[in-house]
Amino acid sequence: MKREDVVVLRKYLILSGLAFVLLVGCSKQDNQSSHEGEVKQSTTISTSQKAASTNEKATSKKEEVKPMKVLEAVTEKKSLSEIEKSIKANQSDINERNAQGESPLLIVTHENNIALAQLLIDNGADVNSQDHIQDSPYLYAAAQGKTEILRYILQHSKPNQKVYNRFGGNALIPAAEKGHLENVKMLLEDGQVDIDHQNNYGYTALIEAVALRDGSAHYQEIVKTLLQYKANTELRDNNNLTALDYAKHLGYSGMINLLS
Questions:
Q1: CATH for the stretch 67-166
Q2: Rg for the chain (alpha carbons), in Å?
Q3: Rounded CA gap, 110 and 113, in Å?
Q4: pLDDT in tens, 120-158
Q5: Long-range contacts of range 214-223, CB-CB < 8 Å, 24 or more positions apart?
Q6: CATH topology for 170-260?
Q7: Whether 189 contacts 175, CB under 8 Å
Q8: Keyword Kinase: yes or no (predicted)?
Q9: Do domains 67-166 and 170-260 have the same CATH topology?
Q10: Is 77 strand, coil or helix?
């Protein structure tokens, strides 16, 4: 082989070697880039999965939140449907009382919220539960003219006629004294209330309707109703006075005619 041919062959071999090295290097770079891309993609998927998992847990926690207690729901004036959910979730707390001793039913009776009162009564709310001043839903409804609530109580529960207000009176006495004729009639028609019950002052419904009021036609109608149901006109209060004695003392001629 000639010297010139040897030189040419060497150059060829050197160039071939360089080409091989470059080819191998590019291949390694492509593989590394591909691997890095896979790692990035895997990391992105993992992050997304974690975020989704976190959202699912948060949603799950929200779904697990229990409805508030009945007393809390009533106090915060939640809607009828929300209070119904509270009752279903916390049936045993339906008669829970606040710092004033007021039950959910007494609170809604104060507000004359008939729909809520009916819902609570239907779910077993105690109509005799008394607050710190001895008001109960039954006694308060009768005394304060919450006629529809009183009607529902009489129709759907059993008021305890031995539970008295802070003056020792039953439901009938303040109903008569405050002029709630329809409540008086309702209680008498129900037949369970003691028409002649005397409170701590010895007053009956009849005595209070005369002695503590104005002798007007409206109160004459209440007295007439009590007499129709055989109220005892001979009973005397702690001052030893009857309803007729008061009518005479106050000069209520219409009352005198009814009671004589």
A1: 1.25.40.20
A2: 43
A3: 8
A4: 999 999 999 999 999 999 999 999 999 999 999 999 999
A5: 215/247, 215/250, 215/251, 215/252, 215/254, 215/255, 217/254, 218/179, 218/181, 219/179, 219/255, 220/254, 220/255, 220/258, 221/181, 222/176, 222/179, 222/181, 222/184, 223/255, 223/258, 223/259
A6: 1.25.40
A7: no
A8: no
A9: yes
A10: coil
Q: How far, in Å, are 31, 42, 175, 229, 246 from residue 254 at the CA level? A: 114, 98, 21, 19, 12
- Residues 26-63: tens digit of each pLDDT: 455 555 555 555 545 555 545 555 555 555 555 555 55
Task: Spell out the domain ranges in the chain.
Answer: 67-166, 170-260
The amino acid at residue 3 is: R
Question: How is residue 212 annotated by DSSP?
Answer: T
Q: Are 168 and 136 in contact (CB under 8 A)?
A: no
- Percent above pLDDT 90 for the chain: 72
Q: Where are the alpha helices (DSSP H) in the chain?
A: 3-63, 70-75, 80-89, 104-110, 114-122, 137-143, 147-156, 172-177, 181-190, 205-211, 217-228, 243-250, 253-259
CA distance 41 to 34: 11
Predicted TM-score of the model (pTM): 0.76
Pick from 85, 82, 141, 101: which is nearest to 117 by CA?
141
Closest CA to 125 of 164, 174, 84: 84
Q: Which of 65-79, 122-136, 152-166 has the lowest mean pLDDT?
A: 65-79
